[in-house]
Specification:
Strand 1 and strand 2 form a beta hairpin. By secondary structure, this protein is mainly α. A two-stranded antiparallel sheet has the order 1-2. The protein is globular and about 50 Å long. It has a domain of 69 residues: Multidrug-efflux Transporter Regulator, Chain: A, Domain 2 (Orthogonal Bundle), CATH 1.10.1660.
Amino acid sequence: MPYKEKEIEKKYYTIGEVADELKVATSLIRFWESEFDNIKPKKNRKGNRQFTKEDLQNVKLIYHLVKEKGYTLQGARNYIANGGTDDSDKMEVIEKLNALRNFLVEIRQQL
């Protein structure tokens, strides 16, 4: 059985990495940070934001609600405040399916 290297999991993400993942401007991430209480990235000595995996998931949830489902900011705030987790579970499944699809496309291209 071939040895597979263990993937290194990042502890913190920069605002640029978060923005690139969602294909949005960094200014939108900073705006959402000011609008939503569940996005609280740490800041290093230089003042650069350091997003945790939980922060990243929260930003993805807000993106999903606002950009994909068409919620207003207040509507998204209310949804999150009322414990709306159904969409975050669905989002996780969608992400895994997209990753699987990309993997299969890559394999097909190698054949």
